[in-house]
Amino acid sequence: MKDFLWALNFLTIVPTGRRWCEREPKVGNVVFWFPIIGMLMGVVLTFIYFYATWFFPHLVADAVILIIYIVMTGGFHLDGFADTCDGLFGGSTREKRLDIMRDSRTGSYGALCLICTVGLKYICLVSIDPGAVAALSVISDYEIIKDLNPLYLQACEKGKVLFFMCAIGRWSQVLGAALSSYARDEGGTGKIIVENVKTRHALFSSILPGILIFLFCGITGILIFFTVFIVVALFVSYTKEKIGGMTGDTLGAVNEISELTVLLTFLVI
User: Fold this and answer.
1) Residue 28 contacts residue 197 (beta carbons within 8 Å)
2) 263 in a domain, yes or no?
3) For 24, which DSSP code?
4) Fewer CB within 10 Å: N-end or C-end of the chain?
5) Cα separation of 29 and 86, whole Å?
6) Are 181 and 194 within 8 A, CB to CB?
7) Is 182 helix (H, G, I), strand (E, B) or coil?
8) How far is CA 12 from CA 41, 169, 181, 189, 219, in A?
9) CA distance 88 to 106
10) Considering only CA atoms, which of 235, 209, 234, 204 is closest in space to residue 224?
11) What string of pLDDT tens digits covers the 269 residues of the chain?
12) Among candidate residues 266, 263, 235, the one with its CA nearest the CA of residue 80
């Protein structure tokens, strides 16, 4: 439970008590909880989405959910994503890129990438067909599901997408850390994660989300997992070339890129 609370404090704005943040965690145990915390976030968002559709059109409900999601994380991953874009695209050398990423101010590259990413996430959420998502499940009869009240169907199947988007996003951070080393000699926010996460931790943390995504999305779920793996591996390789490894900022970027990959994959299945 201590490791769960440390991970919850690290990934969200949920108050868990200062002492959990200050203690030295067992990183192998902590990262196991990353995708599970993502799942819990997906459940909360689904619950809120269901009631949001009572009061607002679906276009507005999707926007509300996206805003609430950003608030739940404190914009933590988006901030890392913006800093990563500023550094990777704005610096000409490894040292300059790392210096730019450490700067708390958001530059033009970061701002543009944030606008494009959040906007594309919203468009994806609006565009996903709940009926198509429902048909993927291997543990339920679609002939029964499709006869549900359209409001229930919309909420349940949009919730399935939110559930796996949040879970795989956090799992991808574990994968990204396992595939690389820490880029900064002086240390930083993500050092404790990147330096201590190994391949076995990534494999172990993928078991539960992997089983669930297969049960709810069938072979397509496995395809989503595989697609995210390839995207993360390519991004890690790119950051190694540019800055020599991963940082806390690039872990946040991995989360955003993976979530967007999940949404785009749901659209093309």
Assistant:
1) yes
2) yes
3) -
4) N
5) 32
6) yes
7) strand
8) 9, 13, 24, 15, 31
9) 13
10) 209
11) 777 888 888 888 887 665 555 566 677 788 889 999 999 999 999 889 888 888 888 889 899 999 999 999 998 899 999 999 999 998 888 889 988 898 888 888 999 999 999 999 999 998 887 666 655 665 554 555 555 556 666 667 788 889 889 999 999 999 999 998 888 877 677 788 888 888 888 889 888 888 888 888 778 888 888 999 999 999 999 999 999 989 989 999 999 999 999 999 888 87
12) 235
Tokens for 27? 């990183």
- Which tokens sit at 121? 């996430």
C-alpha to C-alpha distance for 188 and 229, rounded to whole angstroms: 25
CA 84 to chain CA centroid, nearest Å: 16
pTM, to two decimals: 0.89
The whole domain housing 160 covers 32-268
Is residue 194 within 8 Å of residue 206, measured between CB atoms?
A: no
14 part of a folded domain: no
Between helices 58-73 and 27-55, what is the axis angle to 10°?
150
Q: What is the domain count for the chain? A: 1
Alpha-carbon distance 169 to 260, whole Å?
9
Question: How many other β-carbons are positioned within 10 Å of the β-carbon of residue 15?
Answer: 9
How does pLDDT run across 231-249, given as a tens digit for each residue?
A: 999 999 999 999 998 998 9
The residue type found at 69 is: Y
End-to-end CA distance of the chain: 37
Tokens of 260: 């967007």
Q: CA-based Rg of the chain, rounded to a whole angstrom?
A: 18
Structure tokens, 241: 């070339």
